[in-house]
Write a structure and sequence with these properties.
The chain has 9 helices and 11 strands. It is of the alpha/beta class. The protein starts with a strand and ends with a helix.
Amino acid sequence: MKKQFAVIGLGRFGSSVVTTLYSMGYQVLAIDADEDRVRDIVQHSTRAVAADATDETVLKSLAMRNFDVVIVGIGGDIQASIMITLMLKEMEVPYVVAKAQSELHGKVLYRVGADRVVFPERDMGVRVAHNLISSNILEYIELSPDVGMIEIVAPANTVGKTLRELDLRNRYNINVIALKHGSDVNITPGGKDRIHKDNILVLLGLKEDLKRFEQQ
């Protein structure tokens, strides 16, 4: 069964997470106190709600504990993000990701129970969304609206096979542009190169093709 997500706070970061997860076929509840933001995201989410997430009663009414992952993307209100994160963990939400404004803010978020803290300057919403779906994905870079590049730990079904045997270009229309193993990086991988356990594949392709490979 696919994970279910909720995103609280629909600024640029939160909206990016919502639209990316929804486009990949996941159920996403979007929440913000601003009705205009909620209206803008309706078509790009499973459900969008205008509500004050700092109200514990509201969070309980939205059954937050039933979601696998809740992303707290609150912008400038540091106190609100800390309060919401704390309440979510008290409600036993399995995995809470919280956006931080500073290192100190991040430390407080971890202290109150956040499972992961992200810094928008370093972690684009798109990248975080991909990483939440597949723990194998180490990096996601959006090169254009249609094209992306991912670094992914070699899936089990690729280990022991050569690049020629995998034939990713013909099967998925994606290119292997590098192979990593520890500190060693092969930037000119060829058909005879074999995938080993814990190798990291750097793949380039259309987003829809990368998505097919991620979900194989």
